[in-house]
Amino acid sequence: MADANEPVTRSNEDNSSPDVVIPADTHETVETAPIQDPPSGASSDNPTTVENPTPQPDSSVPPADILQPLPPQLPRWMNPTPKLHVPERSDYSHLEFNWKVNPASYLTPMDNTFVDYNILLDGHSHTTFSDGRMKPEQLLQWAIANGYNAIVVSDHNTIEGALEAQKIANEKYNNQITVIPGMEYRIHMQFIGIQSNPFGPFNKPYPTNEELKNMIDQVHEMGGLVTVNHIPWSNKTEWRYHDPTLPNHPTRDELYEMGVDGFEIINGNVFDFETYVFAKKHQSLAISGSDVHHPSEGAYAWTLLKAANRTVEGIMSALKGKATSFLFDATGTRPRYYPADNKEYLALLPITALANVFASFYDDYRGMYSFQVMRKVVKFMYARYKKFRNDRRGHWRRLDADEQNPYNREYYTDMDVIDMEP
Ligand SMILES: [Zn+2]
Ligand SMILES: [Zn+2]
Question: What's the superkingdom here (predicted)?
Fold first, then answer.
């Protein structure tokens, strides 16, 4: 389920690549390698090009061909990267999915005339290559147990997990499941059916519509499809915060204009009826995704397709035909596997808890240590004070959007908000 797990994702994706420092007197375009290894999924041959806007002729500067790029790494003694083994809370090493659900045995297709299908697809899933807890093979076993015969493996910002899953499926599970490689990127767009990651490191949380459109075009050139995941999760706001989870998320209309092929209309057990209606109206591809991150999660939706055969090409061409229906079980599949507690974790709990306190001083957003915790404490106390004050005066919390917030695009343009403040 996205709600429980995606906040981890956000910080994962906000990895800024380090600023590249260029000597002030450089007057040529210089290519410098990033100082650190880029996040996984980024190709290392992706240098940052920086141009000095004001060329200054200076005879003391050596010609460009003998200018050396900055050293790719600090000296080892200045750059200690201790490989600490922090144990996980649960033991994920021996997962067992020894059941097989047949969803068609107890569910009716959403479009009940859609009975001639041969593909039950999970359109969205994660492995340990991003923030999932299952290795690619374990994910395949989870999917087979839950009645899928095809799966889009779509880790955040990397395609490596998907490619490994595809390799394992071809070697060991060919008669049971087909893997479509994919990737979840930027505003949680889903690239389906690509074989490599054409994009650089994820370093800009809020891309412009133009940047998104360029990406969509590029994926299309590679023969892939672009859908947009979990719009309800991306746009939801939380108590006391008016910011959507993904600020500046384009509207469905804008996404359609940009050329996306479709939308995820069921994410986990959340059926996004409005997006489903939108997709129907525009003849866009409607797809469902478990967005599974953890082995204890069940399956809720199966995208039904009629494909010529159960190959990547067969399934991709069925998706491009955009004729889908769904099986949907709001309760989710009953059999679940709950991983055992990790004894190592429990033994180290006091130390881990202490380490977590210190780790919380690290501000993912800016990639530096800060007193974020103190800031949070002050904000929390201030919010308590305001609540106390408002309760005493009998005020209601304002439900309307914060007009001062530049990121607050009016997503639900037709929403009437009643001002409840007296
Ligand atoms: Zn997502
Ligand atoms: Zn996801």
Answer: Eukaryota
